[in-house]
Amino acid sequence: MALSEERVLEALRTVMDPELGKDLVSLGMVGEVRVEGGRVDLLVNLTTPACPLKGQIEADIRRALAPLAEEVRVRFGGSVRPPEQYPIPGVKHVVAVASGKGGVGKSTVAANLALALSLEGARVGLLDADLYGPSQAKMLGLEGRRLQVDGNRKILPLEAHGLKVLSMANLVPPGQALVWRGPILHGTLKQFLEEVNWGELDYLVVDLPPGTGDVQLSLAQLTRVSGGVIVTTPQEVALLDAERAADMFKKLQVPLLGVLENMSHFLCPHCGKPTPIFGEGGGKRLAEKLKVRFLGEVPLTLALRESGDRGLPVVAQDPEGLEAQAFLRAARELAAALSVQAFLTLPMA
Length: 349
Fold this sequence. Notes:
alpha/beta; 2 domains; 11 helices; 3-stranded mixed beta sheet; GMP Synthetase, Chain A, domain 3
């Protein structure tokens, strides 16, 4: 039988998306099929630009088409599947990054996860909701910049390294303490969500303050949060507080997307030897206990600390570096978790 588009599509019905458990054709992921002689040119539209299993999908496609075609060219596109109702105009997903306690590097993780998602091709914003201790302006090189408004009196986020960024640090003088109670915090967060021109975003990453307080509650009340990420170190004390943060998401009916272990070990800048100064395997054990994805381990390195102080996070500074690659892997797992969640909660077209 002559090679045809119909035969190609029939073969592709045997190729499953490893995350979603359905075939590419039924999922509507096959965008374009061109057949010329014994050649097949195929466009596959993934459910996220940051798909972690792209290589496996391509290998499965080639295996399915090998008996039919002499040559197969696979091209990938990708767009983030939106929810049934956008949580914020133009924003598909709000992702909250939380920790049960301070000092675990949550803001560093939030900034680098956002940058990693952007590097993978998504449109990303970063909201610094740690209103008492905003640090994203410093970490992203935006200190001293002031926020502006557009013609509709909407706040315009600042831009850094391809991200749209909004932080209280760009509204108040450096070092000024915000002695605010819950209602003021709620009102400020409401303004940051509803009175900002975020434009079109696939993901808005929200850097929450440590703990389980007013800002976390307000975020869940003010918008539909697609999911939460827990940041912890391997240390037992940190894990206890991280579990409380996970319980907070459960009580607020926010899906838990995964656990990321920061400072998993210290890498000596001289000999490269890893030293587990906070213990080992705690983040993975917590993810298993909570039955969620383990997003991976990020080492503690001199470069990671220096990059934040310099306003140039490691993912922007050295995307091929060890630390940046850890964040990129975590971002792909996070994007996959959001894709699965969207598939499970939305009616298929």
